[in-house]
Amino acid sequence: MIVRSIALFALAALLEIGGAWLIWQGVREHRGHLWIGAGVVALGLYGFVATLQPDANFGRILAAYGGVFVAGSLAWGMVADGYRPDRYDVVGALICLAGVGVIMYAPRG
Questions:
Q1: pLDDT per residue over 47-71, tens digit each?
Q2: Burial (0-12, 13-18, 19+ Cβ within 10 Å), 45
């Protein structure tokens, strides 16, 4: 169950961050409407992926996903744009991922 949840978070991050990046490229880098359209489609698919999480609490899923988004955005920037995070970026991302673990996977009674 946890492995499935983590995989869904990774897919959601790929779609949301990738979609936003495609739109950024289409608009800011003047790559055109095809890039923008692909970004809009990816963002739409992201919305559906979140519904596949095993936990049924919307607020919990989106709150936890926020931490995945932070870390994923830094990773995307490294791979796609050559961004080099500093130690505070890395520490902040690790804190966010720890928050994901607490929010999603802490035992509840």
A1: 999 999 999 899 999 999 999 999 9
A2: middle
Q: How far apart are CA 63 and CA 83, in angstroms?
A: 25
Is pLDDT at 77 greater than 90 in this prediction? yes
Alpha carbon separation from 76 to 13, 21, 107 (Å, rounded): 9, 9, 31
**Phi, psi (degrees; rounded to nearest 5) at 46:** -55, -45
CA nearest to 18, candidates 40, 49, 48, 47:
40
Whether pLDDT at 109 is above 90: no
